[in-house]
């Protein structure tokens, strides 16, 4: 195990250690005073293929956590495991636990997960193209009592005024950015306590991506926890309080988002910024203490 993090150091926890928070209870035993999302020792398989192994992750109530990683690292699978949609993709949790608010979610049908306050916005938006904007929003509120649905709709249109202007327009005719707004708005109609966002800025122009990021901040400021999967690492780390790096189905780095953003490894691999060693002019001496400053306090696994 490398790095200097550990108990009593003030740094991030070592992956695989116990995660502080409420004890994982049996299904149906949710405690409204309990904390947020807790994932412990999660393993997921698609038939013989193992997609996730030994994943530990936590999203405290009211927080934003980000998951970084290359394509195929297992980020979408992680969200499916939380939202209960793995079975739609012929996947299954083979070990470990997923809990929200002290209540177990692993093994719970997707519709029941939504009723427990966890809603996913899938990658690629997935709006109902032939339905109008208003109909898409109503679909997100299925099963929600009338007053709550009306309040949720008011909240969504306050966040996305353009959706009110496009209320009677077919969703398939919206721009990519507007479709992403609609997908997020549709999820918010269920009144989630935890929002799972899968690549919300994928394929969007920088200005629209910035607007989506601002919206995520507003949603979180209103009390909704967010688990964000995003390849725009700079944006994700700016939004999150804690971040995780997935590589080939395993968490290899985790810690406060600010520390990951300052890590040479993350800066080089996900932010496109050279490490100080490579940025230094050729032939100059890095000076005393260079090796010490190159160390990272991020928790990580080593082979």
From TrEMBL:
Record's keyword terms, sorted: Amino-acid transport, ATP-binding, Nucleotide-binding, Transport
Protein name: ABC transporter ATP-binding protein
Superkingdom as given in the UniProt entry: Bacteria
Source taxonomy: Bacteria, Bacillati, Actinomycetota, Actinomycetes, Streptosporangiales
Signal peptide segment: none
Residues covered by the ABC transporter domain: 37-273
Amino acid composition bias (Basic and acidic residues), ranges on this chain: 277-297
Database matches in Gene3D superfamilies: P-loop containing nucleotide triphosphate hydrolases
CDD domains attached to this UniProt entry: ABC_TM1139_LivF_branched
InterPro entries named in the record: AAA+_ATPase, ABC_transporter-like_ATP-bd, ABC_transporter-like_CS, BCAA_Transport_ATP-bd_LivF, P-loop_NTPase
Region (Disordered): 274-303
Family membership noted in the UniProt record: Belongs to the ABC transporter superfamily.
Record GO terms (molecular function): ATP binding
